[in-house]
Fold:
Amino acid sequence: MSLDTVAKSRPYSEFLKSCFLMAVFGISFAEKVSLVKCPGMYCGRKDTGGGTYSECGACPRGYQPDPDTICQRCEDSPKFYDWLYLGFMALLSLVFHWFFIDFTNKRKRTLIILHASALVECILAAILTLLLVDPVGSINIRSCMVHELSDWYTMLYNPSPNYTTTLHCTQEIVYPLYTISMIYYAFCLLLLMLVRPFVSYTFVQSRGTKSIYAALYFLPILIVLQAVFGGLLYYAFPYIVIVISIITNAVFLSSISEQEVKPLLKEAFLNLRNLTILAGHWFLHAYGIIAMTQLNDPRFYGTLIALVPFPVLFYILTVKFTDPDRNVQDMS
Structure:
């Protein structure tokens, strides 16, 4: 090959080399542009296939943005604490059912059927809710991990790039912990209207109608409570359960007519109804302790459960020092 031929072919080869480099760097630059992290805490890009991604926005339900703000499908199972939280939200409706059944009726002995009906309704609602949540038809739950309080309130963290337009990335980052309680309460409301009127009319001479009306109020209130304060309840419910169980326990014991040690012991432990109420308080107290400690050290924290009856015994043994009527008489 002559020098002239080499000289003529060199510009062509340089041109091909330049085209190749431009193509390689162009593709790399395009990929870099498409993978720029999204603004805000909860915005992400959906993988549309072929190595391309969508614009920044909310991830689909059941997905979370990873550190590169790419929407990733959640494949975790709820933690022990998550299950305790869901149990707390389920117990709320049951406790309210039982309270209003008892509160709206003076004759207590014939109400066991209404209490049993409320329990069955809540159990069926829980089963239907678990079967409806992904994976459908299974009592297992596919969930996303909860990292911080702000995960519950993504609507408050929609970014505004350059302070011009708002990028809407509101989504259920804590899937399905935010909506599953609402679904459960909706099923409770549906089963209440289907089952309770029949039970009330057939077995207790329509004495349960007032408790039905009460449930038609407090179930929607619980849905709103979950929508507004779900994140706060998630972190605070162990302490709420412990404090309320102690307070209501004291209120119940103070409602007994004879405020003496022996009558209180007799009424609290020999009366089946009162003993059932006390056992319910003890269960809630133990539930709060388990949720607060998560039994990370079973040997140590397990012994705390043995102290659950202590508030009742403390009230009964010190009642003579706290009875207002007795103190007034002593002063006179």
Remarks:
- The chain has eleven helices and four strands.
